Amino acid sequence: RAKAQGGGGYVLFDRGMHEEALRRLDLELDLRRALEKEQFEAYYQPIVRVKDGRLTGFEALVRWNHPERGLISPAEFIPLAEENGLIVHIGRWMLRAACQQMRQWQLAFPRRPALTVSVNLSARQLLHPEVLAEIRRTLRETGLSPRHLKLEITESAMMENAERAIELLEALKRTRLKLMLDDFGTGYSSLSYLHRLPIDALKVDRSFVMHMHERAEDCSFVETIVDLAHKLGREVVCEGVELPEQAALLRSLGVEYAQGFLYSRPVTAAQAEMLIIEDAQRGR
Ligand code: C2E
Ligand code: MG
Ligand code: MG
Ligand code: MG
């Protein structure tokens, strides 16, 4: 939409572009203050065991309660935070919030099998020199056992610096937490790395699950990933499950875990607690 003007080489922005640039700048300034103003909130989306639909844990997903714009989706501000480095601070806050919350639930519901919490780690965080020490400290200070923490790392974040990522993942594995490869299938080079990555599970991206029930190729794709994962001794989580038909297919393919609107949208901590109680009642 920017028009280069003749030979002068300067660029004229149209009104729409100008407004977009201002909006972005505004958002960035607000984002810088959002942490101190406590505008972030952790939402929780259930992850269920496919074979019986039982609750096994939650993925923690950040939400921004903007005073004027309302709830802003991470799709809008995470890329911005990645660029300007704020993601390191937001991620640190999320990790602590999620670990604290899970520890609290475990203490509140001591009789049910322990739930796990999954936290997303961005590329920027992965390459941060203090990340390992910080994760260890957070576990120690919140009292959550590393066995109950899962870190989700996307294929593309991993590939930004694969050698370095593998080293860090190996160090993380030694602390005995679980590692998940997020949005699997959307990156490109990881197939050749898969056997070298010390990950516990693959999270198959929603874009493949979405059409499984109506497109045979998509179903074959998921089937192939599941077989590969199982042959390598990894488990599989499918994200974006919205329909019972999709869940039935996942069951027939032997997928271990599923996540999606069929079970629940991401909800507040208080609503998540109700889901824990409901699940406990089903189990008796
Ligand atoms: P993700 O880690 O792949 O998280 C799954 C996303 O899929 C979530 O979007 C979730 O709400 C959405 N989802 C789950 N089930 C369904 C479904 O059945 N249908 C549809 N249409 N969508 C579903 P959300 O919460 O908007 O987060 C988007 C992305 O933002 C996440 O993708 C993750 O990459 C990033 N993100 C969220 N929270 C954090 C965070 O604390 N740190 C970092 N680094 N990234 C985060
Ligand atoms: Mg994730
Ligand atoms: Mg994902
Ligand atoms: Mg995704």
UniProtKB/TrEMBL annotation:
Coiled-coil spans are none
- Protein origin, superkingdom: Bacteria
GO MF annotation list: cyclic-guanylate-specific phosphodiesterase activity
Which residues belong to any copy of the EAL domain?
Answer: 24-280
Q: What residue intervals traverse the membrane? A: none
Q: What is this protein called?
A: GGDEF domain-containing protein
